[in-house]
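A reminder before we start the practical. When you read a complex entry, don't treat the lines as separate problems. The point of joint prediction is that each chain is placed relative to the others, so the output describes one connected object in space. Small molecules and nucleic acid strands, if listed, are placed in the same frame. In the example below there are three entries. Take a minute to note the order of the lines before looking further.
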Amino acid sequence: MKVTLKVWRQKDAQSPGRFVTYVTPELNPNMSFLEMLDVVNEDLIRRGEEPIAFDHDCREGICGTCSLVINGKPHGPHRGVTTCQTYLRSFKDGDTIVVEPFRARAFPVIRDLIVDRSALDRIMWAGGFISVRTGSAPEANSLPVPKDVAERAMDAAQCIGCGACVAACKNASAMLFVAAKISHLGLLPQGQPERWRRARAMIEQMDREGFGACTVTGSCEAVCPKGISLEFIARMNRDYAVALLKGDSPVRAAAAL
Amino acid sequence: MKTLVCFFTSSVGRKFLMAASGGLLFLFVVAHLLGNLQIFLPPEAINNYARYLQNHPELLWPVRAGLLVLLGVHVWAAVTLTLENRAARPVQYWGRPAPYGASFASRTMMVSGVAVGAFVLYHLLHYTVVVEGLSGTKISLRALKAQHDVYAMMVAGFRVWYVSLLYVVGVGALCWHLAHGLGAMFQSLGLKNRIYGPWLDRLARAVAALIFLGYASIPAAILAGHGRAHLQQVIERIETAPERGTPPAVRTPH
Amino acid sequence: MATLNANIPSGPLAQKWTRHRNESRLISPANKRKYKIIVVGAGLAGASASAALAELGYEVHNFVYHDSPRRAHSVAAQGGINAAKNYQNDGDSVWRLFYDTLRGGDFRAREANVYRLAEVSVQIIDHCVALGVPFAREYGGLLDNRSFGGAQVSRTFYARGQTGQQLLLAAYSALCRMIAAGQVKSYTHTEMLDLVVVDGHAKGIIARDLRTGRITRHNADAVVLATGGYANVFYLSTNALHSNATAIWRAYKRGACFANPCFTQIHPTCIPVSGEYQSKLTLMSESLRNDGRIWVPKRPEDCSKHPHDIPESDRDYYLERMYPAYGNLCPRDIASRAAKKVCDEGRGVGPGGRGVYLDFSDAIRRLGLAKVQERYGNLFDMYREITGEDAYQVPMRIYPAVHYTMGGLWVDYNLMSNLPGLFVIGEANFSDHGANRLGASALMQGLADGFFILPLTIGNYLATVHPSQRPSTDHAAFAAAEADVTQRLNQLLHCRGKRTPTEFHRELGRLMWDHCGMSRNRAGLQSALRQIAELRDRFWHEVNVPGESTCLNQALEKAHRVADFLELAELMCLDALHREESCGGHFREEHQLPDGEAKRDDERFAYVAAWEYAGPDRSPVLNKEPLVYEEVRMTTRSYK
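Here is the predicted structure of the whole assembly.
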């Protein structure tokens, strides 16, 4: 099979970008989408042209590095998978496929299809952790966690931090990402001491990074490769309101870290 | 104090205010519908109800002021969040595809919201302020208002087919707004989980549909002839009444 | 010749670590903050070390080439992490975990290190639970375990099929906390391209900002490499595409010894190669072997039949037949070799006859579909995405693939290489897995090194140097190292040949898989050595790297890594050639028992082969650290 690619090319954040059309060589339907890009890039390199820059690493759907908006949907046509797990058998011979970077003000383009997602890291710095000093942990089984609670925490903890939720949302909201982390730690008994402080700190950092707000359209959940539920956003909203009413400060004194 | 300000400054806080104000406005919508449905009772029912409200300004005005504040909060939160949301996504995807997995109602809350706003404005001018030029009928609504006959006012107003149509479209927009807004309200307030959440969304759509049917039934019934006899009686009573001072003309001269 | 002193504490095995902790040198809190430590890598080892060192008060600078520390390849580990908790009451103990690991490694690991690893394993679970890892639980709320290859007890803790992800996120969250505290400075999208050695001590690195191409110099009192393994030498492996050997290879070329480079692990349960275009191989967790049964047809002529049409009597459950005691749960090297053997006999299934069945029909009958889905659902989903087949209906097809490298930079008991000030932790070092790593041990080692061992042992070095003596980045050694890096990058950019870096990488991978893979022989290795040298020569003449070095240039990154692989591959073959025995993952066809099992030679090869760089055109020098076992007797491994 062969397909026509309409790919966003942009030298760096400052330069304007544009779509460039490439007709691929003959492809095998069992190739992954990224292997198809590899093939196109190999061709470009042989011709001495600069290959299409795109993010990828583990290629098994867990590291969260790969991105891409394929025909208007982050991570390609299927639900519950990342771009690196999208295979060409999902497309037809002769298709034209539009490939764009994740679009959000908080995700500036670095080059071509690569965007800067460090805003998500900064949200994590603000409070995405349980403060426990190495060596001070109690015996693991001293704190029972009901199986259902552990499973729900795991449902939230599965987030791979790819940012597809932001890319899909018409408001470029990062609330699904933030809610997943707040819920993961907020559900577990270990996470209770910092629960309210964490909710405030992470949400307020999210606002500072220039993400939009949730309008409950559900796009984020629909494109999330790990199927993280909107339910967690409701949970986050509740935690935030309680945090404000309780008055826990999100600020940590340096010594208290 | 500084902490509570976050309800007005943070994204989640403003969503909370928007949901809370929207929820209270929704309660008003329900109460208003129940009041209006008295049109299907004998005329005295709704007229007594209206008179009771008019005679108790200490109830009426705080409620009106409250509604205005709620509306203000709701609109302010919506406008500021929408501006921020647009700024958060400055570049659109090629061909502007509809966001994957998002329902039509959820994507168009601003459109339905503005439509509802315009409709409410018209409704207030039509029946509360009573601007005669907007009613499209030769019967003076002001004259009917002077008689404290809300029943007759409604019948007279909705006998104009395009006014009725406008109302049906208006409450349609309201219910389109509510179909998403009611479910989202619970989400923003954090009162939703995976057990009852999906039912809440279905319930929200059902309630929105019921409200639409309730409101739309009034103009529909009136166009079909409901209340015509009473209106006729009222008009005749006014026209044959002994003149005292300058009675309002019920029918505008040709 | 390098002097290799393993610095193993004296005393009984069980007391060595305690004794070492008591005798290690401490640095006062007021002085700790004056020391600056560079940590390269943010996988389990790197992130946990950065966090733990920062908690102690050191100034830590962490470097990753990823866009976020959370993306390191530890994230992909599926199955679990071992710990000697004995929560199952099945007879587990620190000794047993130690012995299983040492025996699994075919007695080619350092006894004292492995014992310490087993000891610390217990603390790791406590700490990870406290950090919020949602480990699988039983209904009573306590931790659940599963069994894993190479052990007869259930000691593996897990979080669905994503244990590595959850542990990495925990280590990353600890790192985030210290970044927020200002104790760690995080450099993302920044790749270490060289090590700076001043007066024989590691004192800094040269790094390249992958976004801007800017080359930067960073000095420190000590450098910690936590840069993972080098399985991508084989081109096709289960490693992430960017996993590379550059950091450890540059350290090797600056004087650090490279130990046992030929010890690579071939994982038995991977999805078979489907075509030439393939960019990586995907692992199916070893935990699948708990319930899945591995088989091939008894007769080669049945291989093309649909598996459902092959009756039970015509199937060969070869692992259960050959290793009745451990059956499908025998160690990885053994399971892999057995798969190769049956495929070589012409009984492999699937395209090219390179595959064996992993069949869950018995498990589904025994446990019910729902239970199998609960245990392995995500793995079955992944299999369907990749192959388009439903493994609930037809057996999975699997084949071994390169997965892990036990070899790495040589370190002593303090995890310090022979270059003072250079510490190496996690997969990047050689220390704990001998010639074969057991499943669920890599996560254990990464976190043990990072959270609990290095933060203590690094003090033994730091106490001997003073922060005021830290060389500035203007030092001639920094300038020279930077000039080397720039020159190498420019050379790559100026080749302007006709072939892509990936083509060379693929060719190298094929060579290595054929001659230095699951089984090796003298003639093959000698031929590989010749061919690698040729390939390297062609690479430097024919490679094409478009673009420039002053902006993001993925072709340049790739070419630079391939250049290092082309050198490292040679050392691996050299090591494999010199080790005239079979042990663990290193199987020399000349050295096997009559039944085809590995024939170890403890007389001649009970040592760590630590190779020392001797210059561009000279053969590396072989240093030997004898493996002296004080409490364990080396025996022939038997899983029968």
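Discuss with your neighbour: Chain A touches chain C through 83 residues (CB under 8 Å). What might explain this?
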